[in-house]
TrEMBL record:
<keyword id="KW-0446">Lipid-binding</keyword>
<dbReference type="InterPro" id="IPR000582">
    <property type="entry name" value="Acyl-CoA-binding_protein"/>
</dbReference>
<protein>
    <recommendedName>
        <fullName>ACB domain-containing protein</fullName>
    </recommendedName>
</protein>
<dbReference type="GO" id="GO:0000062">
    <property type="term" value="F:fatty-acyl-CoA binding"/>
</dbReference>
<dbReference type="InterPro" id="IPR035984">
    <property type="entry name" value="Acyl-CoA-binding_sf"/>
</dbReference>
<feature type="domain" description="ACB">
    <location>
        <begin position="1"/>
        <end position="89"/>
    </location>
</feature>
<dbReference type="Pfam" id="PF00887">
    <property type="entry name" value="ACBP"/>
</dbReference>
<dbReference type="GO" id="GO:0006631">
    <property type="term" value="P:fatty acid metabolic process"/>
</dbReference>
<dbReference type="InterPro" id="IPR014352">
    <property type="entry name" value="FERM/acyl-CoA-bd_prot_sf"/>
</dbReference>
<comment type="similarity">
    <text>Belongs to the ACBP family.</text>
</comment>
């Protein structure tokens, strides 16, 4: 599972680097799952009103509170497969 998660993260990053984009909601969903999978429950205070991007990212991460890191990795893989175009999603082993 860990190697599959790492492969999914790599493919999502390559997809972004290729100039293609996910929707904001898709990117935030993946971000929240990534942070939960790698760090665990949110461990910082929520950014202030002058940082709307930071608040959105914090909220996406906080929405995954109490999800185990193993479950977050599995959800990340599934979400990546569902939001990436088929040619990219098929690269996730």
């Amino acid at each position: 599972m860990e190697s599959q998660f790492e492969a999914a993260v790599k493919i999502v990053n390559e997809f972004g680097a290729s100039g293609q984009q996910l929707t904001n909601d898709q990117a935030l969903a993946l971000y929240g799952l990534f942070k939960q999978a790698t760090v665990g429950d949110v461990n910082t205070s929520r950014p202030g009103m002058f940082d709307p991007k930071g608040k959105a990212k914090w909220d996406a991460w906080n929405a995954k509170k109490n999800v185990s890191q193993a479950d977050a990795r599995a959800q990340y893989i599934q979400t990546a497969r569902s939001v990436l175009p088929p040619a990219w999603a098929s690269r996730i082993a």
